[in-house]
Amino acid sequence: MGRITRKGHKKEAKAFKKRNQVLWGYFFTFPFIAAFFLFFFVPIISTFIYGFYEYYTVGLLEIEPSFIGLKNYSSLIDGNFLKCALNTIFLWIGYFIPQMVVSVFLAAWLTDAKMLLKGRELVKVVIYMPGMIMASAWAVLTFTLFSNSGAVNQFLMGLKITESPIEFFSSVTGTRFLICMLMFLMNLGNTTLMLVTSIAALPKSRIESALLDGCGYIGSYFHVVLPSIRPVLVYILITSIITGLQMFDIPQVITKGNGNPNRTSMTLIMYLNRYITSNNYGMAAALSVCIFLISSILCFLVYNLTKGENPYSVSKRKGSVYDE
């Protein structure tokens, strides 16, 4: 009977300890849950609700919220919403594709053990530094350099390449190019370092086996290394989509908030900012919901199209030459 009693006490003690751990877990997570509920969840639900209401202020006059159904959403479709959405997607593609191409080749260069590249850490720092500078500072600097009286035009006219200043901000191509260039520079470092870290964590035997099988360095990189870090590539793609849909600082400063020429550089967040500054909260809420749905649908599609069994997973390919 004594042994049974001792076992019972041990079980009760373990159960009590487990309950205490659970309670302490709830205690430490409660501040985050409360803050998330008050400052994130409630505003999100309020935004969804106000999207169905007419609610705005004119000076000191406040128009009380009145239910109008889907009128705000129909007004968005009839307005410049589709044009701004296409502008945003075009600008995102314009910087994301070059960013990924350059990042992939930089990652291969920085992780190649045969090259014995000196100063790799310095190269990483230099690549990452543009992302540490505020986007608005980059935009102001670019606007100053490429203006009609800026340093770039003065340099070109000094070399007799052009007789008159090039109006970069008056052409659709010039404005979009400068926006994409800045977004490319700001995001290149983070993407490259993520790829470098992921490749460095791969088992060296996997790459060596591919080389011994005659795959070649380039072939092993594109057929073994990149497929092995597919989750990281998917993560980069999804976060880039969200960043692209939230593009605001650079085009806002460069185009002075107008999205010129002819609103070809106005993004969705710039369009949303117009409704917020004009105190049209109902339309701003409806547009916010649309941006949320677009980003959710795109991320869902990307995740489902790219998910699947990793052919180079150790757990799935036991005994393969690419395993450790």
Keywords:
MetI-like fold, 324 residues, 13 helices, mainly alpha, flat, 2 strands, two-stranded antiparallel sheet
Could you characterize what this model shows?
The chain has 324 residues and is mainly alpha-helical. It has a domain at 87-306: MetI-like fold. It is 69% helix and 4% strand. It has 13 helices and two strands. The chain has a two-stranded antiparallel ribbon with strand order 1-2. A hairpin with a 2-residue loop joins strand 1 (53-58) and strand 2. The two termini are 53 Å apart.
State which percent range the strand residues make up.
under 5%
Taking all Cα atoms into account, the compactness measure Rg is: 27 Å
What is the name of the CATH topology of the domain at 87-306?
MetI-like fold
Percent of residues in helices comes to 55-70%
The N- to C-terminal Cα distance equals 53 Å
**Strand order in the sheet with the most strands:** 1-2
The number of distinct β-strands equals: 2
Query: Considering the protein shown, what is the CATH homologous superfamily of the domain at 87-306?
Result: MetI-like
Task: Give a concise summary.
The chain is mostly helical. It is built from 13 helices and 2 strands, in the order αββαααααααααααα. Strands 1-2 form a two-stranded antiparallel sheet.
